From TrEMBL:
Gene3D superfamilies xref list: Hut operon regulatory protein HutP
Keyword Glycosyltransferase applies: no
Known function: Antiterminator that binds to cis-acting regulatory sequences on the mRNA in the presence of histidine, thereby suppressing transcription termination and activating the hut operon for histidine utilization.
Native source species: Alkalibacillus salilacus
Database matches in InterPro entries: Regulatory_HutP (IPR015111), Regulatory_HutP_sf (IPR036482)
Subunit structure: Homohexamer.
Family matches, as SUPFAM superfamilies: Hut operon positive regulatory protein HutP
Keywords recorded for this protein, A-Z: Activator, Histidine metabolism, RNA-binding, Transcription, Transcription regulation
Signal peptide coordinates: none
Organismal lineage: Bacteria, Bacillati, Bacillota, Bacilli, Bacillales
Family: Belongs to the HutP family.
Protein name: Hut operon positive regulatory protein
Amino acid sequence: MVDQPHRPIGKSALQLVLATSEEQEALVETIESAGYQTCLGKTGSMELQKVVSAIETAAKRQGLIDQSLYREMHALYHAILEAVQGVTRGQAQLGDVMRTVGLKFVIVRGIAYENQAEGEWIAVALYGTIGAPVRGLEHETAGLGINHI
């Protein structure tokens, strides 16, 4: 395994999810040169399971996780749920309480510590809007989840 420069995994995910489309390409290059894999996407729904499913599907399609390995699916799931807790202010509910989200998401995977024996980690960052299902009545929101694989 090649020693890579240390770059915080959570900070990398947050910077990427907050980046403009013009900034993303250079930032992806910087993050990937530090040894991480990245995946970007968008999701929106009043149903939490659709948000979770969109992020999981993107991770599988981009090859960030091996769906045949339980530990990888489990780590991703918990990172997503932790990020959703931030977005929903601790109450992981959307449609049940008349809320909807429109989110950008980023997944970053790799060695998060200088000591490579710590193994791989996965971070999920979310940024977008949440609010009543009426255009113009939403506000910004963000969340970050990090879990070891």
